Amino acid sequence: MVVITSNIEVGKLRRTRTRVVGERFIQWVLLVCAISSIFAIFLIIVFVFSQGVPFLAETGLSFLTGSVWLPADSLAAGTWGIFPIIVGSLIVTVGAVAIGAPLGIACAVFLAEIAPPAVRRALIPSVNALAGVPSVVYGFFALLVIVPWIRGQFGGFGTSVLACWIILAIMILPTIISISTDSVRAVPREFKEGSLAMGATRWQTIRNVLIPAASSGIIASVILGMGRAIGETMAVLLVAGNSVTIPGSIFAPVSTLTAQIALEMNYATGAHQQALFAMGVVLFVFILILTGLANLVSRRRVTF
Amino acid sequence: MKKIFPIVLISLLVAAAVFGAGCTSSTNNSSSSSSSSTVSLAGSTTVQPDAQALAAAYMANNSGVTVNVAGGGTAAGITAAGTGTAQIGMASANVTASELAQYPNLQSIPICVDGIAIIVNPQNTAVTGLTMNQLMNIYTGNYSNWSQVGGSNAKIDVVNREQGSGTRSGIQSIVLKNGNFSTGGITQSSEGAVKSYVAGDANAIGYIGVSGGIDSSIKALSINGVAPTYGNIANGTYVIQRYLLFVTNGPATGLAQSFINYTLSPAGQAILKSQGEVSLNDVPGYVSSTTATTAATAT
Description:
The complex is a heterodimer.
Chain A lengths: L6 H53 L2 H4 L3 E2 L8 E2 L2 H32 L2 H16 L2 H20 L6 H25 L3 H9 L4 H12 L1 H17 L2 H6 L17 H8 L6 H29 L5
Antiparallel strand pairs in A: 1-2
Chain B lengths: L3 H19 L5 H8 L2 E6 L3 H15 L4 E7 L1 H10 L4 E4 L5 H6 L3 E15 L8 E2 L1 H9 L16 E5 L4 H9 L11 E3 L2 H10 L3 E6 L9 E2 L1 E2 L6 H5 L6 E9 L4 H11 L1 H9 L25
Parallel strand pairs in B: 1-2, 1-3, 5-10, 6-7, 6-8
Antiparallel strand pairs in B: 3-11, 4-8, 4-9, 4-11
């Protein structure tokens, strides 16, 4: 049996108890903060789905497959078909990623492996600055520079699929570059040293060892970039043309889910408003699939 | 159980706080904002520059009063007036039957007459005017090439406004006789966006309010041989025209009533004239009154 008789030891015990209570309080505060953020996304999902799913139930599959979009305030008076808009969103996203991902990954490899320190010091703040530009400024720039250029070179409206591809590729570059650079840097040095020791050139090392080793992070960054591209609203609203038709060529105008919602939400009432929420549900499903994929892929570890 | 209980308790507290914060009374807006010294307007992007000019003059004459003018389109403006978000809604088309069914106390006060100009790019030199029939065919998609209406061999780039736009409703009722627009055009969300698009595309055709400013960057067409001049709009020979309205929920009171009276006064009408609108006093046979009239259906 231990009897605590010394005053110093009793004092130490008292301070320990207070410290424990203080610790617990801090932990509770952090727990509340974490739960609030989870709650926010939970509330958003619940609200959007509660407004949109009843509308989807009433219109059925024709909402997703119909090609004519003529909204009205009551369900019966309108024609609800968003197939061209879904196709528009997908075309714009796939093209943006097809242009932006190779550029971004190449830049990431350059930054991580090849760039001399001076160039790296210049490039990294530039990439971060790209990330900080507001999307409406991107859209405005594209409207004043890219759209007239396309109209002059290729004819047509100018506000087109190609304009969306170009500006969205630029917008997703910072996401892809920063995450891919970190992934390539995180590959253990032994991999690179082993490959070089076996006589491989720098490019062979990068291509056959480093990029495959960093592939889970690179793929996760591309998927996150895809999520940003599909959710981009303001820039697309300004340069897409907002024509609810399936684009016949890359110089034809297009409408995306996000831009259509932004265009109409100011004045939509009744069934029209619920239809916009239903479009939000479709968008949510796409984005949830993409971020789920990103989480899944980034957890894989490539082992040698 | 012991570890889950605090998490559940905190979750319930956070939920209660969030839901409690969201429950606000929506009837507070109109009564509180009319007793303060601000007047809020929202709605049509056609009326917006006129309202801003009126607001500037009104604020110069009445110190201590702030007049806020926001855009958003005609339908958004009427909704804002109905819900009390704005004291005065700006509209470039009449209140529709469904809007009246939703907000039965809406009252419309005409403030001026505005012509809708059909604009093309100045480089489109061959076309100076169209008949109403040609215009209808262009907007329904039957005509797709400028050569079909006397221009060069080029595709017609049709620029529309979004569906909530009063200017678009005006074109739909007057030119298309309530038919549908074709889906081949692009959509821009404000007057300014339409104007800058047409100024940049040699083959474009669009519609803006005459007050939007027919400057050297665009060219206005004559319709059925009648140009959209002040006199032609005032005497009605330029048919694509409509009243611009201030819409209130019930009779306007307080500062909102004062602002509307200022708009209808000779000083206000002079400001509207300087903006390019046609003053109600210059419309032959128009009986001007400061009392509101309820618009029943769209013309």
